[in-house]
């Protein structure tokens, strides 16, 4: 049936069908877990779930199209300005080494892109959409303005391409950006999940719901920017992980409830001109928050 339609329409319908299948899997996995191990018990059909479902499809369909041009320009710049010796060296690594380097490099790029989205007033206008969620669960992972999504993903891809891990030196390299994006997306659903699991010493090495929920607290701490590797926050002085869980989520600004309203919200004059600032977080019991941000961070 799809073959008889316009090729582009058929491709879109195929993508929507694929996303519906993935959404079914996510619901089957996370809804029972969030009911059995809820950090904050609440109804499944909570406020804003309809808008977040729209974001799920929007955030999955748009980025690939919007990123095609900047990624093409980035690949051209890498071929033009990055020394061929560096590209040849990384191309000679075994796949596992390139994949591991890509994961770390991509996470470093994402960390700074995410951090700038909090510290730069213009970027915060778009990123505040994600933080406006008053209830954090797995579906909030996709509650992202397209501009914010494209910026954060591009920041994660820049170091991957600069190191020659994103092509075009070898065909295997083209897999690494996809692999990094897939891992980040899947783990993003987990760290937003409304589950009260804590992983003990593993929390030093891998992000958890407890780690990321503190990033969404309504009392802003401007901490925990990493998506998968929390030790980056330790290195850059932005780690905060008390034993307890945040009591409340969201931001002070009141955002429109509709998807259309939130799309234009960052462009309105009354949108927040700067991210909510806060001093160093007050340590909770057994807090592992870091020292104040070092001077290198103040330049951004």
Can I get a quick summary?
With 300 residues, the protein is mainly alpha-helical. It is built from eleven helices and no strands.
Secondary-structure blueprint:
Blueprint: H1 7-36, H2 49-81, H3 84-91, H4 95-119, H5 121-131, H6 146-162, H7 175-192, H8 209-213, H9 231-235, H10 259-264, H11 295-298
Helix pairs in contact: 1-2, 2-6, 4-5, 4-6, 4-7
Task: Please supply descriptive tags for the structure shown above.
300 residues, mainly alpha, 11 helices, disordered C terminus
Largest sheet: none
Helix content range of the residues, please? 40-55%
Q: Which secondary-structure class do the elements indicate?
A: mainly alpha
Distance between the termini: 52 Å
Low-confidence stretches: 277-300
Give the strand content.
under 5%
Indicate how many domains the architecture comprises.
Answer: 1
Shape: globular
Task: Report on this structure.
The protein has 300 residues and is an all-alpha fold. The protein has one domain (2-298). The chain has eleven helices and no strands. Helix 4 crosses helix 6 (146-162).
């Amino acid at each position: 049936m799809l073959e008889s339609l316009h090729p582009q329409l058929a491709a879109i319908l195929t993508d929507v069908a694929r996303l519906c299948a993935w959404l079914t899997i996510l619901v089957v996995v996370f809804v029972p877990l969030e009911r059995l191990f809820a950090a904050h018990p609440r109804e499944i059909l909570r406020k804003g779930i309809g808008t977040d479902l729209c974001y799920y499809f929007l955030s999955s369909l748009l980025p690939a199209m919007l990123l095609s041009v900047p990624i093409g320009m980035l690949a051209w710049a890498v071929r033009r300005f990055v020394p061929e010796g560096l590209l040849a060296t990384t191309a000679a690594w075994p796949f596992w080494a390139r994949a591991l380097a890509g994961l770390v490099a991509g996470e470093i790029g994402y960390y700074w892109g995410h951090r700038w989205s909090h510290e730069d007033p213009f970027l915060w206008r778009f990123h505040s959409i994600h933080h406006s969620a008053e209830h954090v669960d797995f579906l909030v992972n996709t509650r992202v303005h397209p501009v914010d999504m494209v910026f954060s993903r591009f920041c994660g891809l820049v170091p991957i391409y600069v190191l020659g891990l994103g092509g075009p030196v070898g065909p295997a390299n083209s897999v690494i950006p996809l692999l990094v994006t897939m891992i980040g997306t899947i783990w993003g659903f987990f760290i937003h999940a409304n589950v009260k699991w804590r992983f003990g010493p593993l929390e030093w090495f891998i992000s958890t719901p407890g780690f990321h929920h503190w990033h969404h607290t309504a009392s802003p701490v401007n901490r925990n920017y990493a998506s998968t590797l929390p030790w980056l926050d330790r290195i850059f002085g932005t780690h905060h992980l008390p034993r307890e869980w945040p009591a409340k989520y969201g931001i002070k600004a009141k955002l429109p409830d509709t998807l259309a309203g939130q799309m234009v919200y960052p462009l309105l004059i009354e949108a927040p001109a700067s991210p909510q600032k806060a001093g160093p977080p007050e340590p909770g019991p057994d807090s592992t928050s870091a020292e104040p941000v070092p001077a290198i961070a103040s330049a951004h």
